[in-house]
Amino acid sequence: MGAPRTRRGGGGWRTHAARAISVALVAAAVLSSFASPARADDPLTEALKRKEELERAVQVARQNTQRYQTAAGQFQAAINAANARIAALAGKQADAQSEAEALGYEIQIAEEQLALVAFQLDETKALADSLKAQADEQTRQLLRRQELYARHLRTTYRQALVSPLEMLLGSSSLTEFASRLQAMIFVNRQDTRLANEIRALRADTARKQDEASAKEKEILGLQDEIGLTRQRLTVEKTLYDKLVADAEAAMDEQAQARAGAAADRNSAQNAARRSDRQRQDLQRQLDQAEAYYEQLAAAQAGKSGLGAFNGKLFMWPVRGPITSYFGPRWGGFHNGLDIAAPMYTPVRAPSTGVVTTVGRPYIASGDTAVVVIIAHGNNFATLSGHLADGGRWPPVHVGQRVAAGEIIGYIGMTGWTTGPHDHFMTIVDGRAQNPLSYLP
């Protein structure tokens, strides 16, 4: 069973998890059958079989725990990726929001400018209308003045046909003559002034109308420009508002994905904890089975006809530096003594005894170490592990009597090991003891 694939919703992982749990339940059901004593003619074989089954169950539980932990790590990676995506989207949303707010301010300013220009346009139009009305009134006055001026001219013309002598002779007195002459001069001066005022007023009115028309065109152009700017800003603001909305929707989607991954991670972690508790329970049963196997191995050794072993071993199985002692190690317990030596160095029987085991008794748990167990008495046995295989397979067999110093195997690296050495154990009354207490 491979590692679960991370998929949205966790469907693939749940399928693998269900299969793994099914396997674990089957293993638990198998283990429940171990509660009753084994009925077999060979209790050693039955104990070995029970231990191998427990080792397989422990291996399955260990694989399940690792698979759940891997799945939890994958879901955590999905959570981290969602968090990073949400942070990036939040940054983009903030930028878009800031841009949209800035555009909103620009639109507001443009609206105010447009309102001011409209007011100015209205004022200019009112001024132009006023100037036009004044011009019309002045035109009417001009017409009246022109008519009056024309009558004055005609009168002046007729008077001009009368010589001053005739005017004097036609007057009843000098005073009348002076009055008629003064009136004619006054009319001429008044008409001249009136004509000048009318010309000036007409020119001023025309100039103001031209200015008002130019200003009106300028304001109309500015109005069009501001209107286009407002339209452009409105379009841009709509775009940025959409970006903000899209970012919010994407963040909601990522948040949902993160929540789903978190739920899957929690489920995987819970499953890993359950599987690890099951593994620990199976490991306890395995430890009990190994202890029982050691007892049965010692009991089996007792059938060889040997008496009790009460002394020390005759010799070391191999000479070399001790790389790991008996006792606690790496959070566990090391039940033997690791004696390093070059590959294929002969390993010898430490004392006289009978061979009770040759081969790989722990292969069911994945440990391919080749071991040889020798009974030296009905209460004492030794074990040498990680021996070479292939062309250097141990040259002894079960039931064979060996003497101290006889070759029982060769230094190798089978099983779980980081270098060539002999994992040497001493089993006393069915339990592993410190080999240094028995070696010479």
Distance between the termini: 50 Å
Q: What's the gyration radius in Å?
A: 59 Å
Query: Can you tell me the CATH architecture of the domain at 306-440?
Result: Distorted Sandwich
> What is the average of the pLDDT values?
78
Q: Approximately how much beta-strand content do the residues carry?
A: 5-15%
* Biggest β-sheet strands, sense, barrel: 8 strands, antiparallel
Shape: rod-shaped
Low-confidence region ranges: 1-41
The total strand number stands at 12
Which CATH class of the domain at 306-440?
A: Mainly Beta
At the fourth level of CATH, the homologous superfamily of the domain at 306-440 is Glucose Permease (Domain IIA)
Q: Provide the structure class.
A: alpha+beta
Percentage of residues in helical conformation: 55-70%
Order of helices and strands: HHHHEEEEEEEEEEEE
Descriptive report:
Strands 1, 4, 6, 7, 8, 9, 11 and 12 form an eight-stranded antiparallel β-sheet that branches. A two-stranded antiparallel ribbon has the order 2-3. Strands 5-10 form a two-stranded antiparallel sheet. Among the domains are: 115-234; 306-440, Glucose Permease (Domain IIA). Helix 1 runs antiparallel to helix 2 (43-161), helix 1 packs parallel to helix 4 and helix 2 (43-161) runs antiparallel to helix 4. A hairpin with a 2-residue loop joins strand 7 (370-377) and strand 8. It is α+β, with helices and mostly antiparallel strands and 440 residues long. The protein has helices at 11-32, 43-161, 164-170, 174-302; strands spanning 322-324, 327-329, 332-334, 337-340, 346-348, 353-359, 370-377, 380-387, 401-402, 407-410, 421-428, 431-433. Mean pLDDT is 78; it is low at 1-41. The radius of gyration is 59 Å and the shape is rod-shaped.
